[in-house]
Amino acid sequence: MNLENTLVQMRKGILEYCIMHIISRGEVYASDMLEELTSVKIMVVEGTLYPLLTRLRKAGLVEYKWVESNSGPPRKYYTLTDAGNDFLLNLDATWKDLVNSTEKITSFKN
Questions:
Q1: How far apart are CA 77 and CA 23, in angstroms?
Q2: How far is residue 53's CA from residue 19's CA, in Å, rounded to a whole number?
Q3: Which residues contact 50 (CB under 8 A, 6 or more apart)?
Q4: Is the whole-model pTM more than 0.85?
Q5: Region 64-86: what's the mean pLDDT?
Q6: Is residue 79 very low, low, confident or very high in pLDDT (cuts 50, 70, 90)?
Q7: 110 CB-contact burial (10 Å; exposed 0-12 / middle 13-18 / buried 19+)
Q8: Are strands 72-80 and 62-69 parallel, antiparallel or unpaired?
Q9: pLDDT at 44 over 70
Q10: Which helix (H) or strand (E) holds 78?
């Protein structure tokens, strides 16, 4: 079994949750999301972020607005919709349950 593949899959499994949390803080530009995700080693490839943002938008969980930039083309700034906020609350509850269950399993000693 390939360790690197397993690590990548673990990160991918929580990527959507992390992105939604970043967006929940307020309007955010995609490159800022990418920078934060990369800095904490959740994601390192840009090609993963944009398709995920598109899926979240099509699902009605995020929206964006164009903002003019002083240093180039306009930028898309993302925010959560009301449905996105509700979805994130459900993800939060599930995450807490998963962390609790995982800690119980990984702390058990023979």
A1: 9
A2: 9
A3: 30
A4: yes
A5: 92
A6: very high
A7: exposed
A8: antiparallel
A9: no
A10: strand 72-80
Exposure string for 71-104, b = 16+ CB within 10 A, e = fewer: eeeebbbbbbeeebeebbeebeeeeeeeeeeeee
Q: CB–CB of 28/40 below 8 Å?
A: no
d(CA 20, CA 16): 6
Give residue for tokens 């979240």. Answer: 56
Which amino acid is present at 79? T
The set of residues, in sequence order, having a beta carbon less than 8 Å from that of 44 and lying 6+ positions away, is 38
| pLDDT value at 53 more than 90 | yes
Q: How confident is the model at residue 87 (pLDDT cuts 50, 70, 90)?
A: very high
Spatial separation of the C-alpha atoms in residues 56 and 108, rounded to whole Å: 37
Structure tokens at 29: 């530009």
DSSP, collapsed to helix, strand or coil, labels residue 101 as: helix
Show the tokens assigned to 77: 């700034």
Q: Which residues pair with 46 in a beta bridge?
A: none
Distance CA 34, CA 75 (A): 14
